[in-house]
Amino acid sequence: MRFTLREMTRLRVPLLIWLMVSVVATVAGPFGTLDAMGVTGRALYWSLIAGGSIVLNAAAQHLTRDVRRTGRIAVGAGFVLVVSSAAHLANTLLFSAWGGFWDWAYLTGTVAMVTAAVHLVFWAIAPQDGPAGDDSDVFLRRLPLELRAPLVRIEAQDHYLKVVTQRGTTLILMRLSDAMAELSGQGLQVHRSHWVAVPAVTRHRREGARDLLVMADGAQVPVSRSFRAGAQELGLF
User: Fold this and answer.
1) Range of the domain at 206
2) Considering only CA atoms, which of 131, 108, 146, 114 is closest in space to residue 183?
3) Which residue of 43, 74, 87, 192 lies most exposed, with the fewest beta carbons within 10 A?
C-alpha cells in the first residue's frame, strides 16, 4: 500500500496539469480548433496532445536528471521540436487551413515558451523540497522531487549511488567522491563505499571486530578502521 500511495503522489502533479490544460484548451479552442471541431472532438484532441506532451516531458526530465546543463538544454530543445512537429503534423491532417513553415514556427515558439515557463516554475519551487538554507541543496536537486528531504545515507554501488533520504531511496549516476564534494560538511564518510548524515545515526553497535552504525532507515553501515577516528570525534561511538 505504501508503494501505491507513493506512486499516486508522484503522478498527482502531472495528472492535474494534464486535466487543467485539457479543459482550458477544450473551452478556448486555440489554433483554430474552436471553429473546426465540436466540444467532444476538441476534448479528445487536446487530451491527447496534452497527455503526449507530459509523457515526453517526463522522459526528457529523466534523461537529463544526471547530465550537465548543456545536455539538459539539448534534450529540452529536442522535446520542443518533437512536440511541435507532432502537433503540426496532426493539425495539417485535420485542418485544411493549417500548414506551411510559418504555422510550424509559430507553434514551435509557443511550445518553447510554455515549456520554459513550466521548467522555470519547477526550478523556482525545487529548493523548497530540501532543507532550507542547506548546502546540500545542490546535491538534492539531483534527486526526484518527491525524494528531496534530509539525507540519511549514501552507498556506492558500481558506477551508481544509492541515495537514502527521509522520503525514500533512489539510484543516481555519480561518484561518491563527487557527491561528498557537494555535501562538504554535511556528513561523514565512514567507509570507502558509505557516507552517512550524522543526525540520521541512531546508535553504534559492535559485531566482533566490526563497528556498525545503525541508521534511521534501519540499515547497518560498516565503519572501516581508517575512518573510525573521525566517527569517534563526532561522538558516533
Assistant:
1) 137-233
2) 131
3) 192
**How many CB atoms neighbour CB 196 within 10 A?**
27
Residues 189 and 223 in one domain: yes
Q: Verify that 141 and 25 share a domain, yes or no.
A: no
Place of cell 525524494: 147
pLDDT digits (tens, 9 = 90+) for 5-33: 444 445 566 677 788 888 888 898 877 77
17 and 111 part of one domain = yes
Query: What are the pLDDT digits (tens) for 175-196?
Result: 999 999 888 778 999 999 999 9
Cell triple for 27: 473551452
pLDDT digits (tens, 9 = 90+) for 126-154: 444 444 444 457 888 889 988 989 999 99
Do 168 and 219 fall into the same domain?
yes
- Cβ-in-10-Å burial (0-12, 13-18, 19+) of 20 comes to exposed
Our CA angle for 17, 23, 28, nearest 5°, is 120
